[in-house]
Amino acid sequence: MDWETKLYSDIMEQAFDVLNDYNDRFIWKCHIIIDLMDILKESVNESIKLVITNALILLLSIFEDFYIDSLDSKSVEFDEISNIEKDLLINILKSEV
Q1: Which helix (H) or strand (E) holds 46?
Q2: Which of 52, 72, 73, 88 has the maximum number of C-beta atoms within 10 A of its C-beta?
Q3: For residues 40 and 48, what is the distance between their CA atoms, to the nearest angstrom?
Q4: Which structural domain range is residue 25 located in?
């Protein structure tokens, strides 16, 4: 197993260890973020920076509650918007075609 895969796997395994306790999870997450940011700050190798950045993204997304389609929760029916907004939307869509 390469070190990148091991890093991601370790993050996931540690996340499962603190899964049920909000306080432990928050403390663990803060410590890992700080550690990864320190590595990122000290690294000069671009490939290492990319891996650490991806690890941070993984870490930040592990416990977040989000919709499969986040736009769905903010959507508005077309019939409910004003005529000005309808015209604007239609013009934007026409310009995309």
Answers
A1: helix 46-62
A2: 52
A3: 8
A4: 3-96
